[in-house]
Specification:
This protein is mainly α. It contains three helices and no strands. Helices cover 83% and strands 0% of the residues. The longest helix is centred in the middle third of the chain and has 144 residues.
């Protein structure tokens, strides 16, 4: 039968079991924030930037006097291209470092901001998943409560119908009893009328014989 209580109960228990298993799998799948969440890298080491900006230029010594001065000037003219090349290299290195320090700082700040956003987003996702599981856990009690409410309404309606049916049955029985009493009275009257008719007939026969 379609409304077999035992079959319906078995189907409900099977559905509850499948739902609870799915809820357990969902609860186990909730993400967790890692304990060793990465930190942003340290900022650029600019400890030597100021000294480099002052030491990159090679200062030429003042010209000397006499034979020693002329000899130093001759040597200076020979090595001047090397000093100029070294100074150009120093300038390029210092300029490169000066340009990369702000970039490194901005990169570090960008990584820090991204990690913070990622951490907060994952935290919000974990909270949402937890709230989702809690919400789903409340569905079964909510449905059961609704079922109990409906069952209570049905019981109340059934009781009202039964009360009305009992009242109608009592009235029907009273009417049947009244009808039976009426029938009995009619039958009694019929019997008396028949007996009276017989007495009248007998009286007529006696009168006719006189």
């Amino acid at each position: 039968m379609e409304d077999d209580p035992a079959r319906l109960k078995a189907e409900r228990e099977a559905a509850d079991r499948v739902y609870n298993e799915a809820l357990t799998h969902l609860d186990r799948a909730i993400q967790r924030l890692p304990a060793d969440f990465p930190h942003p890298p340290p900022g650029p080491d600019d400890h030597q930037i100021t000294p480099l900006n002052t030491l990159w230029k090679i200062d030429r010594p003042a010209a000397g006097r006499g034979l020693r001065g002329r000899f130093a000037d001759a040597v200076r003219r020979v090595v001047a291209p090397l000093f100029e090349q070294q100074q150009a290299f120093n300038s390029a290195v210092v300029d490169h470092l000066n340009r990369n320090v702000p970039v490194a700082r901005e990169t570090r700040e960008s990584i820090a901001t991204t990690l913070t956003l990622l951490h907060d987003t994952m935290g919000d996702l974990v909270r949402f998943q937890s709230l989702l599981v809690i919400f789903l856990q409340q569905i079964t009690p909510y449905v059961d409560t609704r079922d109990r409410d409906v069952a209570g309404l049905l019981r109340g309606l059934s009781g009202a119908i039964n009360a009305v049916a009992d009242e109608l049955l009592k009235k029907s029985e009273a009417m049947l009893a009244r009808d039976r009493r009426h029938e009995m009275r009619v039958s009694d009257l019929d019997a008396r009328l028949t007996a009276l008719q017989q007495q009248i007939a007998s009286l007529q026969q006696v009168l006719e014989k006189r």
